[in-house]
Specification:
The protein has three domains: 338 residues, TIM Barrel (Alpha-Beta Barrel), CATH 3.20.20.70; 162 residues, NAD(P)-binding Rossmann-like Domain (Rossmann fold, 3-Layer(aba) Sandwich); 118 residues, FAD/NAD(P)-binding domain (3-Layer(bba) Sandwich). It has 24 helices and 28 strands. The strands form seven sheets. Strands 3-4-7-10-11-12-13-14 form an eight-stranded parallel β-barrel, surrounded by seven helices. The chain has a five-stranded parallel β-sheet with strand order 17-16-15-18-28, with helices on both faces. A four-stranded parallel β-sheet has the order 22-21-20-26, with helices on one face. Helix 3 runs parallel beside helix 6, helix 14 packs antiparallel against helix 24 and helix 15 runs parallel beside helix 17.
Length: 674
């Protein structure tokens, strides 16, 4: 008999009925206004609910003022939450999905993000080396927060949610009490597992006492902290058993890790350096331990095929996908409709979501620039479709150019894309060849598929010279989008070193010699990924930078995982040193503070990593020609940045190619919004 569980069939998880087993879990968006859900929230969640997801769990709603941390978070300790959450409930319900409200206190992680309050914690142990030391909570303050969970739960239920999720994981306050790595108390809340679990039990009891007996309850836990001296799988199984035994838990949401300034934080939002579903053993263990309890799995489940595999293998009953829903709002609908254009899947780069979250900015997405701006993009697209078709030339086949071409074609323009190379992808092609960055290969493939879907006339191996732009047959363009990217920035000092270009080092690592020095002025993932590649070819690698930190432009959710791969493999980092030339085969470096000179011996080659320079020759030609052609610069051709900006600007350029007043007015609402 076929007992296969279908991802898209309805499910009864405890008392919670859902139209399918696909969940969009809680994730902070930084969209909140005055502690409430904003118009951006409504449009964002409406798109995902309409896209077919079964259950949406709100981002963490703070239960107490000491949990705010940032100014753009949602506050469930304020009675005003009932109105904005109620509107969100109605929005999600109108599209056929259910909504659960998550209750959260971040504890010691609340410090240093714009709210001038001391963070509270189980013990005075900061979550990272640069974080504020938390105030050790008194028993009175513990009781205050426990009561706050209950009061927040009552507000959330009154807004009409379908379930409440209590967040006990991710290194937040309940886990700070539970973990021996963050709890050194000697009172009734510290020491034994029973004592360390006391706070979580009191929180659950407070919530249950405040809500109706019929409201479903979800517990979110971390199945393993991946932290030395912290909670492992065995301890978490032991801690969870009394919770699911003694309380009416409808769904156990098994996550992982802790927001701690070690490699654990990199596992929290696992990027493309991790394989898909790297933590599936955790929900499997809880399903085996509690077979009668509905288990929700989460953790770099990149697509719905992976989600189905978790169900097929009995690892879980439901599957949560956060970043894939950020990238593709209609993830379920497109997967189920063979005639629908293919969804652009999350590539796990962490640039637009976790990276912007870390900076306190509204989240976005490299794959989907419309995140959080759904209404504005829809208005622009409607205006663009109302105009007359134009002939649009896009120069450059990188992410900005491809996105511009697809966007212009999607609203009826006749689009030609020319690319000098024989392959699409631009700067992404080199990035995709590096270890830990293979997600960019997926991005290239998805962009290429989109070009085909939209019927763009793609001409590879075609440099866009003056003839193509200047009125020759086939060159009578109404509008030109210049997405020519950037070129390596030359430096006269390169002649003083045994220089090897980044491209040569990636494509022919055998030419670099035994000891390679990478001089990093760029601060992206390239330096660490290149080091990984060269180490894999048996090279010794020294990274030199004049900055006080490695890869300073890389999100904290990504950097520790990259560094972990380099340890013990012949990699050395030299910080705050300025290269000053060669003495034979020794590289001289100068301490910018003391002026003292140091030497790095036995250097075979030097790979400089600099911020590249925008290519402007074609724009100069257009400006100089007597035959004026309207044009836009996008992506690195405007100024070098990342794929996040390239895709955003490319789509905006494509949709505004008609340059009519109404289109330009709609486009103006998006300029500067990333």
């Amino acid at each position: 008999m076929n007992t296969r569980v279908d991802l898209f069939e309805p499910v009864l998880a405890g008392r919670l009925w859902l139209r399918n087993r696909v969940v969009m879990p809680a994730h902070t968006t930084n969209f909140a206004v005055d502690g409430g859900f904003s118009a951006r929230h409504l449009a964002y969640h409406r798109a995902r609910a309409a896209g077919g997801v079964g259950l949406i769990i709100t981002e963490g709603m703070r239960v107490h003022p000491t949990s705010l941390g940032r100014t753009n978070t949602v506050a469930a300790f304020d009675d005003r939450i009932v109105n904005s959450l109620g509107e969100l409930v109605r929005t999600v319900h109108a599209e056929g999905a259910k909504l659960a409200g998550q209750l959260l206190h971040v504890g010691r992680q609340a410090g240093g993000h714009g709210v001038l309050t001391a963070p509270w914690g189980a013990s005075p142990i900061p979550w990272s080396a640069t974080a504020a030391v938390p105030h050790e909570m008194t028993t009175a303050e513990i009781a205050e927060v426990v009561a706050a969970f209950g009061a927040a739960a009552a507000r959330v239920e009154s807004a009409g949610v379908d379930a409440v999720e209590i967040h006990l994981g991710h290194g937040h306050l309940p886990q700070q009490f539970l973990s021996p790595a963050s709890n050194r108390r000697t009172d009734g809340y510290g020491g034994s597992l029973t004592n360390r679990l006391r706070f979580a039990r009191e929180v659950v009891e407070s919530v249950l006492a405040a809500i109706s007996a019929t409201l479903p309850v979800v517990l979110r836990i971390s199945g393993d902290e991946f932290l030395a001296g912290g909670l492992d799988l065995g301890q978490m199984l032991a801690a969870t058993e009394p919770l699911v035994r003694d309380y009416p838990v409808d769904l156990l949401h098994v996550s992982h890790s802790a927001y701690v300034g070690t490699a654990s934080v990199a596992t929290q939002i696992a990027d493309m350096s991790f394989p898909p579903m790297p933590f599936r053993h955790l929900p499997r263990a809880f399903k085996e331990a509690f077979p009668d309890l509905a288990i929700l799995a989460v953790g770099r489940v990149d697509n719905l095929d992976n989600a189905q595999a978790l169900l097929d293998d009995g690892d879980a009953d439901l599957v949560a996908l956060a970043r894939p829903h950020i990238a593709a709002p209609a993830l379920v609908a497109r997967h189920r409709d063979p005639a629908a254009p293919p969804a652009r899947h999350c590539i796990a780069c962490n640039q637009g979501c976790a990276g912007r979250l870390e900076l306190g900015l509204p989240i976005s997405c490299v794959v989907n620039p419309e995140v959080g701006l759904e209404q504005e993009w829809a208005a622009l697209r409607a205006a663009a479709r109302s105009g007359s078709p134009r002939r649009v030339l896009v120069v450059g086949g990188g992410p900005a150019g491809i996105e511009a071409a697809c966007a212009a074609a999607s609203v009826g323009h006749r689009v030609t894309l020319v690319e000098a190379e024989r392959e699409l992808g631009g700067a992404l092609r080199l990035a995709a060849r590096l270890p830990m960055r293979t997600g960019f290969r997926l991005m290239i493939d998805q962009l290429a598929a989109a070009v085909r879907h939209h019927g763009v006339d793609v001409r590879l191996g075609t440099p866009a010279g003056s003839a193509l732009l200047g009125g020759e047959p086939g060159g009578d363009w109404d509008h030109v989008v210049l997405a020519t990217g950037a070129a390596p920035t030359p430096d006269a000092d390169d002649e003083a070193y045994p220089t090897v270009s980044v491209q040569q080092a990636v494509e022919r690592p055998e030419t670099t010699g035994a000891h390679v020095v990478i001089i990093d002025e760029d601060g992206t993932t390239t330096a660490l990924a290149l080091a990984d590649l060269l180490l894999g070819h048996g090279r010794r690698v020294t990274l030199v930078t004049d900055r006080p930190a490695l890869s300073w432009r890389v999100p904290v959710y990504t950097r520790p995982a990259l560094l972990d791969r380099l340890r013990g493999r012949g990699f050395c980092a030299v910080l705050m040193r300025v290269p000053a030339g060669m003495d034979g085969d020794a590289l001289r470096c100068v301490d910018p503070i003391s002026g003292r000179s140091e030497r790095i011996e036995d250097v075979s080659s030097v790979v400089p990593l600099r911020v590249p320079s925008a290519r402007t020759d074609l724009e100069n030609h257009l400006r100089a020609t007597e035959r004026a052609v309207g044009h836009q610069l996008v992506g690195d051709a405007y100024t070098p940045r990342t794929a996040l900006e390239a895709v955003f600007e490319g789509r905006l350029a494509g949709l505004t190619a008609s340059r009519t007043p109404d289109v330009l007015a709609a486009g103006a609402a998006l300029r500067g919004r990333l």
